[in-house]
Amino acid sequence: MFLQIREFLDHREKIHVYANSQREHHRERFRDSLRFGLGEIKERVQFLDNLNERDVLGLAKRIKRRKRATPEYMYCLSYAFLQDLENIKVFNKTPGALQILIKELTGKKKTRKLRGHVSHGHGRIGKHRKHPGGRGNAGSMHHHRINFDKYHPGYFGKVGVRNFHLRRQHKSNKIFPFTG
């Protein structure tokens, strides 16, 4: 009986120690987040302080193979370029890597079509000839669109089926055989 109580207390003590260590760990992480994550990047900075030509060559080959440079790669490269002139020379020796960096810095963004007009007509904000009300007749500009299409056809381009001045034949000349 005494042995079971002792095992129970030992188990309870282990749980207590584990809970305290977890609490301390979470407190430390919370403090790091309050300090803008400086504690989390401490190890990263130590890695960045010791970049050599071999690391730069590996980054350059990785950038060339993937045909894009992530912000993390760009950050590492800029840090390496500031450390040593040899790192820049090693990067320039890798063919094609510099062009990919130029593309990343000056190329078109993935969101360029989404950054246009409200109705995503891929135009600039100031351009007009797109329906401002979204799809179809939805939105508060419904009457504006309907009236423009009615009185100024073709202003917004070819939008849907228009049947103005359509002559319907009221009298039919067809003869249907009557079978009785």
From TrEMBL:
Keywords: Ribonucleoprotein, Ribosomal protein. Residues 111-133 have a biased composition (Basic residues). GO terms for molecular function: structural constituent of ribosome. One of its GO terms (cellular component) is cytosolic large ribosomal subunit. SUPFAM superfamilies: Ribosomal proteins L15p and L18e (SSF52080). Residues 111-139 are annotated as: Disordered. It comes from the Eukaryota. Transmembrane segments: none annotated. Belongs to the universal ribosomal protein uL15 family. This is Large ribosomal subunit protein uL15. It comes from Glossina morsitans morsitans (Savannah tsetse fly).
